[in-house]
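Q: Here's a chain of 286 amino acids. Please give me its 3D structure as tokens.
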Amino acid sequence: MDGLDARVPVISPRRPFRDFVTTFGALSSSGFRRYATYRQATIAGSFTNIVFGFLRCYVLLAVAAGSVAHRPGGYGPEQLASFVWLGQGLLTVVSLWGWTELADRIRSGDVAADLLRPVPPLVSYLAADLGRAGHAMIFRFLPPLAVGMLFFDLYAPSRWFTVPLSALSIGLAVVASLGLRFLVNATAYWLHDARGPITLWTLSAGLLAGLYFPLRFLPSWLAVTLWVGTPFPGLLQTPLDVLVERDPAPVQLGLVGLQAVWAAVLLALAALVQRRAERRLVAQGG
């Protein structure tokens, strides 16, 4: 066809790594372009995040003002304000809610076509989600942060490695979130209708990830249990604590290391569940 490039990337046995990187990059780019088409939704979503940012920021600043030590959970007022506005931006980057694509394709039987493609479903979804996160980082993270800087005194990092470490932490949070969402959606292989697990995930993810309030407000034993025993704090709480430098440098590095462990475990578990599901998959009507 004139003017159209219809070539499809194919992973060659002779150059597996280079071709894998090329294919992964193409899928990530397509994920970026896909979300770039929803301009009105992007603007509306940013506006909504900004409105809720004002509400949450004033509530947490009131909590800090009413505290005897004025440092609830070990956060100063500037750190709390930064926690809110950075969290409002990261909410869309990490993407806790709204993704049901795998469950929908399992329910309709379209997932059978996905299994015939040269790229496994988990890899293709991860690549596309990284592209989506890149788009959100530009168009959904920066606007709330700019508004927060305009109306509030935000915390400026004092350590040179905080920014690159937080970038790594955010990337790990995106990977872990995709792993968790994939596992929740994959319940449709056995339940056929995954709306129940997805609803439970929607209700619990924001609370356990530290969206509504910092998990440091909880008793120490409960916060530590959530951090070590579950992957949820690594979705939002850890990147935000790294950005506002809530902890000393060694603790920062330890939290990001724990994030990396959970991200690897979740991806391995998602791959295992996918392999088990493929053994019992029955396409409806086929």
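Q: Can you summarize the key feature?
A: The chain has one domain: 16-280.
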